[in-house]
Write a structure and sequence with these properties.
Chain lengths: 245, 259
Amino acid sequence: MIAALQKIGAISVFFGRILAGIVPALARPRLIVHQVYNAGARSLIIIMLSGLFVGMVLGLQGFDLLQRIGSEEVLGIGIALALLKELGPVMTALLFAGRAGTALASEIGLMRATDQLTAMEMMAVDPVHRIVVPRFLGGVIAVPLLVAIFNVIGLYGAQLIAVQQMGIDAGSFWGQTQSAVELDDVTEGVIKSFVFGVACSLIAVYEGFHSAPTAAGVGLATTRTVVTSSVLILLLNYLLTAFYL
Amino acid sequence: MVDDALLTVRDVHYAVGARPIFAGLSLSAQRGKTTAIMGPSGTGKTTLLRLLTGQIHPESGEISVFGADPTKLQRKPLYQLRQRMGMLFQNGALLTDLNVFENVAFPLREHSKLSEGEITERVLGKLQAVGLREAALLMPAELSGGMARRVALARAIATEPELLIYDEPFVGLDPISMGVILRLIKEINSRGGVTSLIVSHDVEELAKIADYTYLLSGGKVVAEGTPAQMSRSTDATVRQFIDGLADGPVPFHYTETGK
């Protein structure tokens, strides 16, 4: 219990150091853009594939459910809300933690293990500014963008099932969705994805930066990144949902 | 010897848990000279470098580098102090996401006011000095161990620091690379004005370049002198170390308390 509190404290202090480094880091946009590419663009395929399949499953299950009560025409609304408010941000963040978070943690952990971070310190360069902050910002920018892509592909996948396969009228599928989804629903999803982006990226850079400088230490940091991020995402998701409803 | 110490360590105590690493360590490095610190593995040679550069703090004792105590400085003045030092790491510690040229240019880009043209000229000059000008566009992963050490050396001297610190510069090199590194360190030292501190256990190599040597064992200096004095020494610990004997005052068995 005390250890857990200590860790939360340590992460908070580290978060403070990152926040203090954001403004200086903005002077070097190239480093950040490179990290958005690293974390974001390289996660695209897994995000798009997952989005497609999640959307298609929602289409199948939703159609089966709604058919029993004879209201298939609201399928679009259900799927759109599920994706925008819950599945888009949560699934994307979980996939991001597994794909990009682990890569970040092991990259920084290896830099620690091979003395690169110490070398920077010795060259009077703060590794938090040069290494950690750009990677953190890259993740924070990438996650909301990936969520948007996940949602679009997910809706397309649902439409494939509902309209193309099950024969729901395309006009009513899109029309109902358009009229029922409010701006607030979109905002909720955007805020969630932003919060998850911060959480995933923070955990990944923290674990990497503080990993033991050994092969086992880097491995442990990677594992911890996935476990902590996943639990944290689900916990934060509950808290945010409870707050919004 | 005239005392013109750029760096002094006085009565430093440092322990990791219950195991003392240093118990009353004192030594100094004279300006413009090459000082070698020898000792068996595990005597805290690398720990000493971390103390000198303000990465860790001693329990007691005084450290002075350029007249300041690195362990008592805030981040900013500490970084200013470090800008006057160059350090060669045991494994090179090149930044793996930058190519050779960018690695050597890194400290210049961070701290100097040099123009892009001047940086290019300086970096290629330093790479030329270590014989790797043609390797400028390679990534660190494409280098052999010896090449990586030479690039790291070029990076350490890129800012033309007043104090150069070498952490085990000869470890794990083939004889040819070792000869190259040795010659480079000699050349750098002979230019004058540079103070060098070499931490190593390669007795023969150190004898060729050091002006003064310290032998550490059991957390303190057990012998000191010029390489010639050391090789004539009759002290049992010195002989054990220089002649490479398994038995002697330096214990064979590891003990938790270092006793």
